[in-house]
């Protein structure tokens, strides 16, 4: 009997405040979708770092005969065979460097350039003798790039030392910035949702003040009186959480598998799988259910004297 009464009161409350309940559902859905998206973005960045940092190289570019006029470090002329031998030997002695150390001559460099930029208008103006020889170094710990850079940057025959990780850091920095923006927007939507929940509970409590007064007179407990209002908020939050899950699933499918099909267009990126999305859904639903219920409980303490 009591359960039937609570359920009937929930139905009455939802019908009386249909517009505000709809606003709560939408706000909760958007805020939780942004919350789940921020979690997935952080996991995507972490996955990409693990994938790419394991593959990046440190490139030591050597002076060629064309650098003598334009590059002060190569003023002494092109790198000599003896200098190349010494650089390779010193690289192989370093603990931070994985073996073997790869050497790329001008012909190999020109071939790789043509493979990557062969369609560029400038490609026809580049000749093999303009390319640079280089050592491709893989580090055991990508964070120790400065060890190699310090040892070889000012050395005779070395034009420059470049770390491919610095290029990826710019990309990851951009993605982290987008993640922060999503979290900020999520916080804003969450505040709006909580304000709507509080106002909805206040309106619902005010519209049923006669019923609650009668219930107090017949000896109903405070928790029993508050339960329908809390359940209303929890129900609206649950619907919002379920909608947020639908948004996350649809976004993952549209962006990666279908629609934009980034998985096919950017096959060099290790995108997160469906398991990463599905493991976040229970958390989204739990927050969607508990957050409005707790907000309603605190609102009732202030606005419903029981």
Overall helicity = 55-70%
Beta strand count: 4
Helical stretch tally: 10
Largest sheet: 4 strands, antiparallel
Average pLDDT for all residues? 76
Main sheet: which strands, in order across?
2-3-1-4
User: In sequence order, what are the helices and strands, one letter per element?
Assistant: HHEHEHEHEHHHHH
- Shape, per Cα inertia axes: rod-shaped
Beta-sheet strand percentage?
5-15%
From the structure provided, what is the oligomeric state, counting identical versus distinct chains? single chain
Radius of gyration: 31 Å
First-to-last CA distance: 22 Å
What structural class do you assign from the helix and strand content? mainly alpha
- Low-pLDDT windows of residues: none
Concise structural overview:
Keywords: Cell cycle, Cell division, Cell membrane, Membrane, Transmembrane, Transmembrane helix. With 306 residues, the chain is mainly α. The protein is built from ten helices and four strands; from the N terminus they run ααβαβαβαβααααα.
Task: Jot down its keywords.
single chain, 306 residues, mainly alpha, 4-stranded antiparallel β-sheet, FtsX
Secondary structure topology:
Elements: H1 2-16, H2 18-53, E1 58-62, H3 81-93, E2 102-104, H4 106-117, E3 134-137, H5 145-152, E4 158-163, H6 165-207, H7 209-217, H8 222-257, H9 262-265, H10 274-303
Antiparallel strand pairs: 1-3, 1-4, 2-3
Helix pairs in contact: 1-8, 2-6, 2-8, 2-10, 6-10, 8-10
């Amino acid at each position: 009997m009591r359960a039937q009464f609570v359920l009937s009161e929930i139905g009455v409350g939802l019908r009386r405040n249909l517009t505000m309940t709809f606003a709560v559902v939408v706000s909760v859905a958007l805020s939780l979708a942004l919350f789940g998206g921020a979690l997935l973005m952080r996991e995507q960045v972490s996955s990409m770092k693990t994938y790419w940092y394991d593959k990046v190289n440190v490139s030591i570019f050597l002076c060629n005969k064309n650098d003598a006029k334009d590059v002060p470090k190569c003023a002494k002329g092109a790198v000599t065979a003896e200098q190349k031998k010494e650089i390779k030997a010193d690289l192989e002695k370093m603990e931070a460097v994985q073996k073997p150390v790869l050497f790329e001559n001008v012909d190999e460099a020109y071939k790789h350039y043509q493979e990557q930029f062969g369609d560029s208008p400038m490609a026809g103006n580049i000749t093999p003798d303009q390319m640079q020889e280089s050592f491709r170094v893989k580090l055991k710990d990508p964070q120790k790039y400065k060890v190699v850079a310090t040892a070889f940057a000012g050395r005779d025959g070395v034009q420059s030392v470049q770390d491919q990780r610095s290029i990826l850091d710019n990309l990851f920095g951009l993605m982290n910035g987008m993640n922060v923006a999503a979290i900020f927007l999520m916080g804003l939507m969450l505040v709006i949702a909580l304000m709507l929940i509080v106002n909805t509970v206040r309106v619902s409590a005010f519209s049923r003040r006669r019923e609650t007064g009668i219930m107090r007179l017949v000896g109903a407990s405070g928790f029993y009186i508050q339960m329908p209002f809390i359940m209303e908020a929890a129900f609206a939050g649950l619907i919002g959480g379920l909608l947020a899950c639908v948004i996350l699933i649809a976004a993952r499918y549209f962006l990666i598998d279908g629609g934009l099909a980034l998985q096919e267009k950017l096959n060099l990126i290790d995108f997160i799988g469906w398991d990463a999305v599905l493991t976040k859904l229970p958390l989204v639903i739990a927050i969607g259910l508990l957050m409005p219920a707790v907000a309603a409980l605190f609102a009732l303490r202030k606005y419903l004297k029981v």
